[in-house]
Amino acid sequence: MYINIADDKKIIVDAVEARDAELCELALQIHRNPELSFHEHESARSLIAPLEKAGFVVERGIANLETSFRATWEGEPGGPTIALLAEYDALPGLGHGCGHNLIGTSAIGAALALKDAVPNLKGKIVVLGTPAEEVGGGKIVMVEDGVFDEVDVAMMCHPHKSTMVLRGGLACVDATFKYYGKATHAAASPEQGISALDAVIHTFVAVNSLRQFFKDDVRIHGIITKGGEATNVVPAYCEAEFLLRAETVEELKIVREKVYAAARFSAAAVGATVEIEEGLIYAERNNNVTLANLFKDNLELLGEEVAEPPKKGGIGSSDIGNVGQVTATIHPYIKITDTANTHTPEFVEAAGSEEGMAGLNKAAKALALTAFDLCIDEEHYRAVRAEFEAWKSEKQQKEKASI
Fold first, then answer.
1. Measured CA angle at 316 (ends 24, 402), to 5 deg
2. Is the distance from CB of 140 to CB of 319 less than 8 angstroms?
3. Three-state SS for 120?
4. C-alpha 20: how far from its chain's center?
5. In Å, how far are 49, 123, 165 from 100, measured between CA atoms?
6. Domains of the chain from N-terminus onward
7. What is the torsional sign of CA 160, 164, 165, 170?
8. Hey, how many other C-beta atoms are within 10 angstroms of the C-beta on 201?
9. pLDDT for 226-266, tens place per residue?
């Protein structure tokens, strides 16, 4: 099966195989017990346990995030610091419809296999437990706290319906709109009321009218989370949540300004007021092409067919975009299903299926092999870092020119 794999890489592949049953049970355990953003207590404990047993030095609650962790193993000194990113939060009302049970476990599997197979590896392997990717932006908090400042390369692998290494990601932000009106009897004295719900509805209409004036990559999704208490009472308080996306953080700023203005004017039109609470801003994805191609080589070495990413559309957002602003980063995908899209009940099923476990196995191997390449081949490592430093320099020049 593993034709032309060098002996040293074969040892790593075999090390993942040796832990396959353990890793599958770990992934399925997390799958059976989905936990939401910032509440992934049992999932974090489950992922930490095998790392501690293997001798990794574990720190809990880094960046003041209760369910985060950092597990470190250092082989021989002088090599790069490679971070393997573990996600493990689930989706509200759905469970692991994004396969984070596989993401977290593949990072653990890669780290354990490297320590098992190459105990004298020149480099430092760090597993970072990054909570709240779906809602909250745990990686953003960790970036801002300096967790990635000493990381040379960061990697993770996401399950999908296609194996890809260079799929992009949109910048995004979530916002909660809180509308305040005045309650009254809807039949006896409606003239004395101010409907917060009408302000909400007008906001949705106003946002829809804006769509034709945005670029094609812009995405705006909204739901009403509180629409009143009774049909015969004019709603005094209502809430809506929106998620705004654009190609870049700079483009997102324009979208935010227009949508927030629409909300304020919609509230004012009926005599209501609105407060806007904005979440953390997820940056667009900055894939390191050199690193992605190295990962691709290892996937193909394992017999995996790698597809080209969509030329237009078909992408979401992730807080790994913020990691890519501070160090060389990739966010490749591994196929676990032919048809199911993420964030669906069908993908929940795929994330706990035999195909999901097979994807977990290949993801762990590819992560481990790529980390190994970076640690033993200085030319590979220098090329990855050179690409990132060139990107960083160009970005800084653009920022200076815009001032």
1. 130
2. yes
3. coil
4. 24
5. 18, 27, 17
6. 7-168+285-398 (3.40.630.10), 171-278 (3.30.70.360)
7. negative
8. 16
9. 999 999 999 999 999 999 999 999 999 999 999 999 999 99
Question: Beta strand pairing status for 219-226 and 237-246?
Answer: antiparallel
Cα–Cα distance between 110 and 16 in angstroms, integer? 7
Question: 214 forms bridges with which residues in the sheet?
Answer: none
Cα separation, 384 vs 267, in Å, equals: 50
How many separate helices (H) and strands (E) can be counted in the chain?
12, 12
Residue type, 360: L
Q: Considering Cα of 223, then 339, then 28, then 116, what sign does the dihedral take?
A: negative
30 alpha carbon, distance to own chain's centre: 17
Q: How far apart are CA 283 and CA 303, in angstroms?
A: 33
pLDDT digits (tens, 9 = 90+) for 274-331: 999 999 999 999 999 999 999 999 999 999 999 998 877 778 999 999 999 999 999 9
d(CA 318, CA 187): 47
Pick left, alpha or beta for residue 310 (phi over 0 → left; psi -120 to 50 → alpha; otherwise beta): beta
Token pair recorded at residue 351:
């994330």
**Backbone phi, then psi, for 199, in 5-degree steps?**
-60, -40
Taking each helix axis from N to C end, the angle separating 354-376 and 20-32, rounded to the nearest 10 degrees, works out to 120
Q: 392 in helix, strand or coil?
A: helix
Question: How far is 35 from 221, CA to CA, in rounded Å?
Answer: 23
Strands 273-278 and 171-180: antiparallel
- Contact call for residues 195 and 234 (beta carbons, < 8 A): yes
